[in-house]
């Protein structure tokens, strides 16, 4: 017989602070007794005769002390939240032993990576001025939307949005004016607002995760091939592995590492990914700038035979810039680890702003909070530090790479240019180390970007079966996902075109949806600057998404006609 689902605790409203004046006892506990002036003005009668002695009243009993402590706690906390049991079965929320260090590792690993290597390709089509302008605007735009996500992580008292999709569902339920319901044991959505949130947020985040995994397989496999050629040199066998076989080797390594069960367990990989990304990003542009530039270099934007082709190429280049800042689909998940630090240290905080509450949500933990220590403060502080490092990696690679190679930049990015132009000028050991760091970063980035897809697979399974995934089911999901990504990489081996298309398709996740969510959940005053600003940014993001997607599709078709599908070089 199936067990009845456990009833969730609803929010308990706080006792108003002004309704019961308090004084502090020497022990620091709150006492509900009024001050002396208020006591004199009170008309209530308290019995003081021997018929009702003080030691028989609740004031001196342990029960009264319990009630006083509970009352003070509720006044500080304002609500109680309860963890949804299903969260304990899913990889993102299964382990809750994270800390701020883990959050920093995940942020850097997600924000710095192989996408930086493609930025000089975008500059080759945009030129100096528009390349720097577009990169700067995209950086500050996504930094603003990241701030929005950090603020909305605790937009409702007693609720934590642990996943990007949950926040989107809550926002679009507000848009439709409906009530936010539970998935239920059958796993189906209960309102059109939730379905709208899934269609608008779940699929782009899955596209982004799966597309990033595919791009990682492309660049990881090709880099492993180049690393083998550098290390082996003239001693290589006469029958080396083909590009597709290197893709398969890299995919197999990713699948092995993906067996780590949850987000907490890959913190070590994220640390390796962050360190290697910062290291090889610096090495790539320093090595490129330190070498002599090619004699036929030019900084004029690449031209196309027709005006329409030039427009599509520029749109694809802007899509590459947008793809460089993908990662907001992981913002809510990574913030969970920042919050867990305060649980370990015994600090309690939450934002008690008066916002309309919803009836259901996955709760991050039974985690109270106070006005003095809202969770978004350390989260935003950590995000700012992480994005300083991200800027220190992206801008030098883009500017230094374009300065070193100009419009001679190959479609594979600055790494391919370094090998093509300077493989004989740079010491072989230094060049091999750079390529090895790229491979290590791609392996670790595959795990952090695949985690939302793993979580979606397992959420669907647990919702329908009402039990956690076994180790074999979990392994099966991850092997299936890895080889699907491998198949897509073999079918579409056009890295720069794929990056532009992914940047266009998933641009709303980073640049548009957070602005819409802010307006729908926070409800700024209509026709105010805040209202106009966020609506304008949101619709601009949607328009850019359509334009960049068209440019990416055109570039992919054009490359496919030249390079052939299913035939990687």
TrEMBL record:
Residues 1-45 are annotated as: Disordered. Residues 97-335, 365-557 form the Amino acid transporter transmembrane domain. One of its GO terms (cellular component) is membrane. One of its GO terms (biological process) is amino acid transport. Pfam families: Aa_trans. The chain crosses the membrane at residues 117-141, 196-219, 266-287, 307-325, 385-406, 426-450, 471-492, 498-520, 532-557. This is Amino acid transporter transmembrane domain-containing protein.
């Amino acid at each position: 017989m199936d067990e009845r689902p456990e009833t969730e605790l609803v929010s308990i409203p706080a006792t108003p602070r002004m309704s019961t004046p308090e004084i502090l006892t020497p022990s620091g506990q709150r006492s509900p007794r009024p001050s002396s002036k208020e006591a004199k003005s009170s008309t209530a009668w308290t019995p003081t005769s021997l018929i009702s002695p003080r030691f028989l009243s609740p004031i001196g009993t342990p029960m009264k002390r319990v009630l006083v402590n509970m009352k003070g706690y509720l006044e500080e906390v304002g609500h109680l939240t309860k963890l949804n049991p299903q969260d304990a079965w899913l990889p993102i929320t299964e382990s809750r032993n994270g800390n701020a260090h883990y959050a920093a590792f995940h942020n850097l690993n997600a924000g710095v990576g192989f996408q930086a290597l493609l930025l000089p390709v975008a500059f080759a089509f945009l030129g100096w001025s528009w390349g720097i302008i577009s990169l700067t605007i995209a950086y500050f735009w996504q930094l603003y939307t990241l701030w929005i996500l950090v603020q909305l992580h605790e937009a409702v008292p007693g609720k934590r949005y642990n996943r990007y999709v949950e926040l989107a569902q809550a926002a679009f339920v507000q848009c439709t004016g409906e009530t936010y319901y539970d998935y239920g044991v059958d796993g189906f959505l209960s309102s059109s607002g939730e379905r709208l949130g899934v269609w608008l947020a779940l699929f782009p985040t899955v596209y982004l995760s799966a597309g990033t995994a595919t791009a990682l397989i492309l660049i990881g496999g090709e880099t492993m091939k180049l690393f083998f050629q550098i290390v082996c040199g003239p001693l290589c066998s006469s029958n080396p592995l083909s590009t597709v076989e290197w893709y398969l080797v890299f995919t197999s390594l990713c699948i092995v590492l993906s067996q780590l069960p949850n987000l907490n367990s890959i913190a070590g990989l994220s640390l390796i990914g962050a360190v290697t990304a910062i290291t090889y990003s610096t090495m790539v542009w320093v090595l490129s700038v330190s070498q002599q530039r090619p004699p036929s270099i030019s900084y004029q934007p690449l031209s196309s035979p027709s005006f329409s082709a030039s427009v599509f190429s520029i749109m694809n280049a802007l899509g590459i810039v947008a793809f460089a800042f993908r990662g907001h689909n992981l913002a809510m998940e990574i913030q969970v680890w920042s919050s867990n630090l305060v649980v370990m240290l015994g600090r309690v905080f939450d934002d008690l702003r008066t916002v309309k509450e919803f009836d259901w949500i996955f709760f991050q933990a039974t985690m109270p909070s106070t006005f003095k220590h809202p969770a978004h403060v350390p989260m935003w502080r950590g995000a700012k530090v992480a994005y300083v490092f991200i800027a220190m990696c992206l801008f030098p690679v883009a500017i230094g790479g374009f300065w070193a190679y100009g419009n001679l930049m190959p479609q594979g990015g600055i790494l391919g240019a370094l090998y093509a132009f300077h493989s004989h000028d740079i010491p072989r050991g230094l060049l091999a180390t750079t390529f090895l760091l790229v491979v290590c970063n791609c392996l670790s980035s595959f795990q952090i970007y695949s985690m939302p897809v793993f979580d979606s697979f397992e959420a669907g399974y647990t919702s329908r079966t009402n039990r956690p995934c076994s180790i074999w089911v979990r392994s099966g999901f991850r092997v299936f996902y890895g080889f699907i990504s491998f198949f897509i990489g073999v079918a579409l081996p056009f890295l720069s075109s794929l990056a532009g298309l992914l940047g266009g398709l998933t641009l709303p996740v980073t640049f548009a949806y957070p602005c819409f969510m802010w307006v729908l959940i926070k409800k700024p005053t209509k026709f105010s600057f805040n209202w106009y600003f966020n609506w304008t940014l949101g619709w601009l993001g949607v328009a850019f998404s359509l334009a960049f997607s068209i440019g990416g599709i055109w570039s992919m078709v054009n490359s496919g006609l030249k390079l052939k599908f299913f035939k990687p070089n």
